[in-house]
Amino acid sequence: MILELCFIISPIHQPYLTLFNIQKIIIDQLFIFAKKINSKNYKKLQKKFKPII
Q: Any residues with CB less than 8 A from the CB of 2 and at least 6 apart, and which?
């Protein structure tokens, strides 16, 4: 899934995307994924990644 995501947002197609943007998009995807699995893990992830976002 993350590999597909990197392919979609590859710098060739959108050069204005920085590494930070890519990192944030991947983290957002992780949040969505964690929310689907269960909300307890989502809360843990949110605490862990809060400084990055």
A: 26, 29
